[in-house]
């Protein structure tokens, strides 16, 4: 209930709350920002099965990348979680609705990799049009092009860009950055985005298409820049591919789940799609030797790296750590900067009636949760065994717990 | 100087002397009374694009040669126009083998493979086609730059070789070196058509763009909003990524060499889609191995065709190479060939160099045509009164309306073996002072 969901316990009278990095091992960037208000642990897990029980019981905040999934069942394993922060922009790997129902705010970091992703998307598009990646590969394999006829052959398929139409699906931060770069090359840029308010197309001088089909029909190259949600899984499938132009290009630096790879492979083999460049895949890590794409021609693939630069990585991690800090030292969700499930949290907190009978009996009078498996009782000023522990990486085995508040 | 020239090339030059005199250099013989002049594609086999434009005014042949040694004697003797790509070189010695050449048209923009000065001295105009591949080359250059910064080509290659990146730490490792672009400085050497197109594209990514171009007049930098550097060294010092967009000439061979590489920033990138001769590959290889240059992307090389397994770059790391394909798209290729054929047509049906649209050695031609004095004594005795050449090895005499053996030949590709020759025009010997009248009557 609004108002009875308490802030995370912190301050000199309480033990430091536990913050856990779920699917990584390196907390060096996060530590300086969090060490005075939290204990930071890393799990290096690929699923919640691999997360230590202590973390499941005691973590109040979780940091994660895109390589672990948190379904409703996964979320229910956590007993004290109040906030989840995605170190990155996409949060489709977290069931944000279920999290809200469990009183857990979910946040992301939407800004750090916008330009890196846009730059890589343009690199993928240009590699499809100018064929640099494939020709470099051919040279590595020993191809020699002596005469101009041989040059034309090895470069065959390289196309003029001016006058081509680039269709952007999803004109968010990355989509807009891609649109503006593409204009510089002479692309006609059109987009489809059912969530964007009227007028953004006027700001940037782009043409808006009313339906996905309209966009697919008019595009020579389609680039996906929308997040993955319950409505757009396999957005690019056998049916929609057939609405695309014969010989169109497809680029995906967003989420693998948007594309039905079986349908894409078939279209590539038949030449209905002339080439595809994918940074993300239905199953990651991607391998050319397995999966539906393994025999598909005219493919360029990278291993979910469009977002990466040293600077973007550090920026995202620092911002995520700061969001966790805001959660710990402030109020949830009011103090959060990038909470993505605020509406669901507010809705979940509204009781249909305030009658005691409708309140879960175990909750009656208890405004704080009692984490099961309570281990230690807090001592004033600190926890036994912490010492200088907070300055170093804490391993999966925790030595302290979070004290409950008795009522 | 004409005497010195004759002394130097005496045996070969007799047929050329008419060209050295301004005004007595005749237009290419053409028209219903003359056989069609011979146009030869030197280093290719496909003339299908050129044919429709030239067939009514010329005979088109292809040589498919990699050097002038491979060119048939008939072509050397009779071609008045030559078309060529970048894969054959025409040095002074090569040019002297041609007996009737009046115009050379490069199907493309770079003409460093032709000695344009020597050509002018021999009365041969050299033209190029500067516009067709400007955007293709700029787009490919940006693709090369982005592949260095975002590492798509190398990561695709790693995936092909079986690398798997499961965790974010592994992703950071396989992508290690991928850098943020905004705030980086791109230094463009040569702000011509391609350099300008690259500059404007690069700005969209957040590059700070600077350039060095010693030939460009003041003010172009203001038009495009770029920063101009006064010296090459200034540019190299301030650039995170250096991209070459200048043509190759006698002054800039190995522009990028051991010394200038050391003026570049530690860990800078280098991109070359211009000419291989601008870069000393031995020095580049060393810099790549030592990491002084973080990565290089090259569409052109000192020796082409390029191979990763030979040459100074064969063990160099962090290389992206393509086989001189930056210019190519189907449309650009056809446009360039059509424009080249039209330039040949202008040469044949009009005046050289006045009718030419993209003559690159006009100044040299004009200079070469000025006689220091008009005294008869300075004119080579054999030239006296002879305004037209007599090609050696005369075969056929022209018949009105066409040549024997041509038939429908001009509509099909003519092979290296020619079936017909170009007939000479018979001229009695005339005193020099009659030359002007002769010239006027033939205009």
Automatic annotation (TrEMBL), chain A:
SUPFAM superfamilies linked: Formate/glycerate dehydrogenase catalytic domain-like, NAD(P)-binding Rossmann-fold domains
Q: Which GO terms describe its cellular component?
A: nucleus
Arranged from A to Z, the UniProt key words for this protein are: Nucleus, Oxidoreductase
Which intervals hold domain D-isomer specific 2-hydroxyacid dehydrogenase catalytic? 27-341
A GO biological process held by the record = regulation of transcription by RNA polymerase II
Q: Which family does it belong to?
A: Belongs to the D-isomer specific 2-hydroxyacid dehydrogenase family.
Name of this chain's protein: C-terminal binding protein 1
Q: Which organism is it from?
A: Oryzias melastigma (Marine medaka)
TrEMBL record, chain B:
Query: What organism is this sequence from?
Result: Oryzias melastigma
Q: Does the keyword Nucleus apply?
A: yes
Gene3D superfamilies in the record, alphabetically? NAD(P)-binding Rossmann-like Domain
> Where does the sequence pass through the membrane?
none
Query: Which protein family is named in the record?
Result: Belongs to the D-isomer specific 2-hydroxyacid dehydrogenase family.
The alphabetical list of record keywords is: Nucleus, Oxidoreductase
* Molecular function in Gene Ontology: DNA-binding transcription factor binding; NAD binding; oxidoreductase activity, acting on the CH-OH group of donors, NAD or NADP as acceptor; transcription coactivator activity; transcription coregulator binding; transcription corepressor activity
Q: Where in the cell is it found?
A: Nucleus
Residue ranges annotated for the D-isomer specific 2-hydroxyacid dehydrogenase NAD-binding domain, each copy included: 143-326
Keyword Nucleus recorded: yes
Pfam families the record matches: 2-Hacid_dh, 2-Hacid_dh_C
Concerning PROSITE patterns, the annotation shows: D_2_HYDROXYACID_DH_1, D_2_HYDROXYACID_DH_3
A Gene Ontology BP annotation from the UniProt entry: regulation of transcription by RNA polymerase II
Lineage of producing organism = Eukaryota, Metazoa, Chordata, Craniata, Vertebrata
User: What residues does the D-isomer specific 2-hydroxyacid dehydrogenase catalytic domain cover?
Assistant: 47-361
What protein is this chain from?
A: C-terminal binding protein 1
- Identify the GO cellular component terms for this protein: nucleus
